[in-house]
Structures are given as C-alpha cells and as structure tokens.
Amino acid sequence: MDGTLSEWIIALSRAPEQRAEAAKQLANAKQSVKPAILALVRAAGDRDDSTRMWAAEALETAGAPDPGAVPALIQFLEPSAAQADGESAYWAARILRRLGPAASAATPALTAAVKNSPYLAVREEAVAALGRIGPAAREASETLSQAAQSGPPRLARLAMIALESIRGMAA
C-alpha cells in the first residue's frame, strides 16, 4: 500500500484488511506518525488482531501528540462496548503519560480509570500518567494512596512513585 500519512489514517477506518495494512504502514513509516496517534489508539482496540498488533507497534514509537489531543484521549478512557478489552484505554493512558503536565486536564479521567478499570494494565498506565502529570494531579492523591495500600504489588509501587511525584519529592 503506497500512500501518504493522511491516506493511511483514513484507511484505518475501512475494511479489516485495509486497517491492518494501514497500521503496518504507519508502524514502518520513516516520517513522524504523530498526526495519526488518535486513529492508532482507536485501532489498538480493533477486533482484528493484525490491526491491533500493528497499531500498537506504531504507537510504541509515535512520541507524544499535540496537547490539543487530550480531550479525545480522555474519551478512550471511558468504558464502552467498542473498547471492551481495554486496549484503547491502555494506549490512551500511555500517550497521556508521554504528555506529562500538559495532560493535567485528564486527571479526573485517569483517576476514574485507576478506580474503575477492570484491566490492571490500564490502571497501571493511568497511575504512571498521574505521576508524570505531577503536582497538577494532586486531586488524585486519595485514589493513589488507596492503590498504594491495597493494590497488586506493581500497581502499589507505581502509586507510591506517583504520589512522590505529585508531592514534588521525585528524584
């Protein structure tokens, strides 16, 4: 599939074989795929395994989007039938983490993900994102304290690190 970045983004919403090929092209692109991040987060939750795999591959190296993408990324954190397996929510939290303090508007949604997501990986990424947001995520402190005290070991450790970052004590 030869094409431009915008053509690949459009192809991510077509038939399964076109979505998979577009995600593969984006994963192998020599140019920045930052404009495709939102489409790739959506594709990471695709029902087609090949599309999901290639979308995740592209997102691994996509970097951080423009901070203007925060509202759209927040929507992926909200549970829905279309994202029933949590992959899109996982990637949304991971991308928000890359934005650091610029993602502070996502604090309530990330906090809700820590409390309510049935997926441990989503909760872990949400905790890590809150830590990267730092002091601007202070409203998440109670939820992070609960996770630090009663969560699974890795989640508890990440929550302690996030709390240190929010309190301004991170190294």
Automatic annotation (TrEMBL):
Top-level taxonomic group: Bacteria
InterPro entries in UniProt: ARM-like, ARM-type_fold, PBS_lyase_HEAT
Pfam families to which the protein is assigned, alphabetical: HEAT_2
Membrane-spanning residues: none
Designated name of the protein: HEAT repeat protein
